[in-house]
Amino acid sequence: MAKLAPSILSADFGRLAEQIAAVEGEADLLHLDVMDGHFVPPISFGAEVVRAIRRRTRLFLDVHLMVRNPDQHVAPFVEAGADGVTVHVEVCPHLHRTLQRIREAGARAGVALNPSTPFDHSEQVLGDCDLVLLMSVNPGFGGQQFIPFVEGKIAAARGRLQALGAACELEVDGGIKPENCRAVAAAGASILVIGSAVFGSPDPAASLREIRRRLKGAS
Ligand code: DX5
Ligand code: ZN
């Protein structure tokens, strides 16, 4: 069964602690979208917010850095309590070194690929990372539509990971809803990031339970 990682990007930031508590018992990881206003247009939040969240939850904190200079942000986010840090290949000219820095800092290392970035941009470093994140929307905003061609990319990525004997998680992020979660998991995703379909709903825990029900095969 795929793991579920609600993204707080669509949460009510004015009552963040309450919203995180609501999903604590249903989520496998908590996905934290960090945006710098350069790599993607919006600015979301920084390491001090991660530190505050760390004090409120035992969930694995899965930090997705959508920033132009990830190297300078790895250490502060790990120090603030990130359990995993994922960087975008599009802004990492020395990706291998960046991943080593994340692991040396004590966190799980992830590589994110935009929808139009081929999976093979991650292949050389599969032994140096714990997770590959395939974006299924163009990063920057919650509530977008899943880009259809990414479904085939997930399946191809799963095939390559198997062929290469790589043990990385395959996380998929963007546009995942109860209606398409089964197809995304069936294509080979092992972690589903879900933002607006969880925190845009009046009952985030019930939304996660509904997604699990769909993943188990109930319609
Ligand atoms: C987009 C973020 C996503 C976003 C997903 O840039 O990386 O994690 O919060 O939100 P939904 O599920 O609404 O597409
Ligand atoms: Zn994300």
Spans of 5+ residues with little confidence (pLDDT < 50)?
none
Strand order of the largest sheet: 1-8-7-6-5-4-3-2
Q: How many strands?
A: 8
Please report the distance between the alpha carbons of the first and last residues.
16 Å
What's the multimeric state? single chain
Q: What hetero molecules are in the model?
A: D-xylitol-5-phosphate, zinc ion
Describe the structure.
The protein is an alpha/beta fold. 33% of the residues lie in helices and 20% in strands. It has 8 helices and 8 strands. It has helices at residues 16-23, 47-54, 74-80, 95-105, 149-164, 181-187, 196-199, 204-215, and strands at residues 3-6, 29-35, 60-66, 84-88, 108-113, 131-135, 169-173, 191-194. The protein has an 8-stranded parallel β-sheet. Strand 2, helix 2 (47-54) and strand 3 (60-66) form a beta-alpha-beta unit. Helix 2 runs parallel beside helix 3 (74-80). The radius of gyration is 16 Å and the shape is globular. Zinc ion binds at residues 7, 31, 33, 64, 173, 193.
Please outline the helices and strands.
Elements: E1 3-6, H1 16-23, E2 29-35, H2 47-54, E3 60-66, H3 74-80, E4 84-88, H4 95-105, E5 108-113, E6 131-135, H5 149-164, E7 169-173, H6 181-187, E8 191-194, H7 196-199, H8 204-215
Parallel strand pairs: 1-8, 2-3, 3-4, 4-5, 5-6, 6-7, 7-8
Helix pairs in contact: 2-3, 3-4, 5-6
The protein binds D-xylitol-5-phosphate and zinc ion (ZN).
